[in-house]
Each structure stands twice: as C-alpha cells, then as structure tokens.
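Pilot study result, target chain (271 residues):
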Amino acid sequence: MESNNFWRRLGDGVIIAHRGHRAVRAENTLSAFKEANGKCDLVELDVGFSKDGVAIVIHDDTLERTTNAKDLPNFKAPFNIADYTYKEISKLDASSWFIKTDPFGTIKSGLVKKEELEAQPIQRVPTLKEVLLLLKELNLAVNVEIKNLSNTPFDTVAPKQILEEIKNLNMQNRVIISSFNHNYLKVIKELDSNIEIAILQEHKHPKDIVAYLKSLGTNNYNIAEEICNEKTVRYLTAKGINVSVFTINSKEQKKQLFSWGVKAIFTDFLS
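Predicted structure:
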C-alpha cells in the first residue's frame, strides 16, 4: 500500500517536528519551520480555514491562544477562525505570546534567549501555500493535518482544496495527509490514490486496526501515546503498518518506542 517513495526516502527512526520546532519558536509559524530545518526528518502542521476560504496554518479552532486577537477591538470572543477573513487574520501577531507565556520553559531554562526572540520579526499566521513554498525550498517533507471542520462551511471542500494546493506546487510525493476526521482521508484517496494518508487516532483503537486501515487505503497509523504499547506496535509492524506516535518529548521514551518498531515520533523538542 506504500504508493510513493515517501517513507523509503525517510527510512526508519523518523523524527517529526510537531508544529515546527515549537519548543523554541511560536508554533506553526514560518520561524518555527525554519528552525526545524536540519534538526528533523519532516515537519507537521495543522490546516484550518479563514472566513473567506483561505487555507491557513494554525492548530486551534480559535485565535485566542496563539495570537493577540483578544487584545484587539475588531476581534470578539470566542475568536473563531472561521469568523474572520484572512486579511484580518494576517494582521495578527502570532509570535509574541510565546515570549510572554514561555510554554515549554525553554526561555527560563536558557535553551532559547528572550533577547534573541525579541529581535526576530513578528510572525503572522501563514497560509498553507506560504508554508509549503518554504518547505519546498528547504526540501523538507511534511505531515499536513486537516483539522476537523465539521462545524464550519469548509467541511465538504477542505480535502479537495488542500490536495489541490499541494499538487499545484508539485509536492505530493513529499506530503503525507492526516486527520482525525477519517472521511476527509477517504475523499483524499478518492481524488488521488497515490497520495499518502495517515489515520489519526486517540483514546482507543478501531476494533480491527489492520482491516480498518486497509478499508481506507493506507498502512499509516498515527496514534496518541496513551494508546501505544509494545504489543500493539510489534503486532502492527509485523503486519506492515507504519506506526507513528504523538507527542513524545522524552529522549528515553523516543529510544524505547523506536526499539519497539515505531516508524516515526512527533516531538516538540529537536535537540
């Protein structure tokens, strides 16, 4: 079921930069992806949609956590991304929050200097196209996660639009598309049987994991740490399934998971 050279190019023991190098830069910004370059095998990003249908790279459904929207009069609670145009969103500061909150304690620990971050240009919420162009230039592979857009107007158009953006840049052999919304992945496969997709799963496994993956036309299974154990990993690996685990920040745990046969690990820390 490996339909292109995606995994063969990467090999085993793959390190995936979760939302870029988000331990030292504001997540899902161009700066975070640039900082990951040379320190990982591929990067992971999240895609949502602005009110006017622009695919943008941001994790949450709202703007509150990773921008300064709550400080501006033109933005109102609950700060839903789908309520604002990309022009409006593009003016937001998407990086200063990192300096203020130090989410991973990396400023306090000295892993990254506050002065260094303050000297950086303010980061904006990038479009998917902007990030893909950067990654193409850096020759970095990418895991594109489509957020669950079930309660937005973009639920039916997201998979097709995202796939078109990837193909317009001729990046389909450098991309794997994942989602917790498995219907999106079904649509992607119907549109292009050669694109790599990965099932995202947390809380519990499907009843028959192998049969379920096969029904969706993939052997890529991205699972939460909470449902990962040695027995399951070894069983799936023997069946030809690529198991990737999120989000692992302990070096010892990374080593252990790779020893079980895990294909890839999503991590916030790349050093």
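One observation from the pilot: The longest helix spans residues 128-138. A full batch analysis is planned for the follow-on phase.
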